[in-house]
Amino acid sequence: MLKGKELAEEDDEASVAGLERLFKEPEPIDYNPAIPIETFDVIITDECHRSIYNLWAQVLEYFDAYLIGLTATPSKQTFGFFHQNLVMEYSHEQAVADGVNVNYDVYRIRTAISEAGSKVEAGFYVEKRERDTRKTRWEQLEDDFSYDPNQLDRDVVAPDQIRTIVKTFRDKLSTEIFPGRTEVPKTLIFAKHDPHAEDIVKIVREEFAKGNEFAQKITYRTTGANPKDLIKSFRNSYHPRIAVTVDMIATGTDIKPVEIVFFMRAVKSRSFFEQMKGRGVRVIKRDDLRAVTPDAATKDHFVIVDAVGVCEQDKTDARPMEKKPSVPFEKLLQAVSLGNTEEDVLTTIAGRLARMEHRLTKGRPTSHCEGQWRPISEGSQSPTYRSSQP
Q1: Choice among 21-35, 117-131, 212-226, 290-304 with the minimum mean pLDDT
Q2: Does residue 311 have a pLDDT over 50?
């Protein structure tokens, strides 16, 4: 901008994975009389956890203006840049209470290999795959080969382990994850890398047996349809039901119908995890949701399916508000009426009320009574309620 040159476009995946730009010296910026330093009184930078660094840091520092940063995932470096000057914060719990976001539940899937790793004994033949070319060859092991969970789908590919996770997801979907659903909710799966995403898509298509349109890989290395067209279809059309990505849809992509965020990769960065998790919090109108998921009543929450234990690590301040899922709503209210002010009780009630608000419709009371609340669905998830008034 200050030098009159166009910046080269970079995709999000490259900016996340590449290290070159972290060590590249940005071009120095000199004073430009055509754009004086007093041009702006206030500069607002969105996604400031990443937009205040590298070249843009020089641009922001060039102007003599007040600087306001907006981000849902501030890092320590972000606070340092703004001299710890936090003007306002808006918590996940407050956003749920205000109806801006929806809350979430966590469904954990464990396998023996993902928990403890495994060993292949000497003498067995194993398939070796070149990551870049995807060419494979069979080779006999001369020594025992042991691997730990961190090597899964990176140094070692165990298709049966992926298949076990996908089968469990398929079998528990309509009974425990989203009780009563017949359609597969819009599901976003995060894979470790592009070959891992291809393996997941292949196995999902085989296990669900609903055709190739049912599951699609959406990455920068796709060889089929344009990624932007696939994202548009995932957002607005019935197909695909399941999208598998690496980093492309992790940040800055708004797909409101997503009801399941599925982690099949670990995440080291706290802010990146928040961004990925945030793909599910978006609120959507009932009619818009039903246009792509016909059997969905409303989006009152989303579910994180965790196959790698990412939610068991301390990476987030936002936790599921449902702390007592097995306690009936009536008993929770009775506890509060008797003076119980435990945080777990209050946040559970707040989470239940937030879900009810998405499901309630305006009604006309038939008497002076407030009416009764009756559960419309129960399962391993917390029950949801609807007014008995007409």
Answers
A1: 117-131
A2: yes
**Per-residue model confidence (pLDDT) at position 136:** 64
Could you give the CA distance from residue 40 to residue 305 in angstroms, rounded to a whole number?
A: 46
Where residue 362 falls among pLDDT bands split at 50, 70, 90? low
341: confidence class by pLDDT, cuts 50, 70, 90: confident
More confident residue, 375 or 132: 132
**R_g (Cα) of the chain, nearest Å:** 24
Higher-scoring residue by pLDDT: 212, 18:
212
Helices (H) and strands (E) in the chain, counts: 14, 14
How confident is the model at residue 374, as a pLDDT?
41
Q: How far apart are CA 145 and CA 135, in angstroms?
A: 21
Strands 260-263 and 187-190: parallel
Q: Over the stretch 197-244, which tens digit does the pLDDT of each residue have? A: 999 999 999 999 999 999 999 988 766 678 889 999 999 999 999 999
167 touches 206 (CB < 8 A): no
Going 60 to 317 to 153 to 256, the CA torsion angle's sign is negative
Rounded to whole angstroms, the Cα distance separating 319 from 355 reads 16
Q: DSSP character for 72?
A: S
The span from the CA of 373 to the CA of 371, in Å, is 7
**Cα(172)–Cα(76) distance, integer angstroms:** 39
Tokens of 246: 């690496």
What sign results for the dihedral spanned by CA atoms 71, 77, 80, 82?
negative
* Ordered structural domains, the chain, with CATH: 12-89 (no CATH), 95-110+159-312 (3.40.50.300), 113-151 (no CATH), 329-387 (no CATH)
Q: Enumerate residues 6+ apart whose C-beta is below 8 A from 301.
A: 102, 103, 104, 105, 355
Cα atoms in the Cβ-side hemisphere of radius 13 Å centred on 260: 29
- Both tokens assigned to 168: 């469990």
Tell me the β-bridge partners of 108: 306
CA distance linking residue 212 with residue 202, whole number of Å: 9
C-alpha–C-alpha distance, residues 323 and 347, integer Å:
7
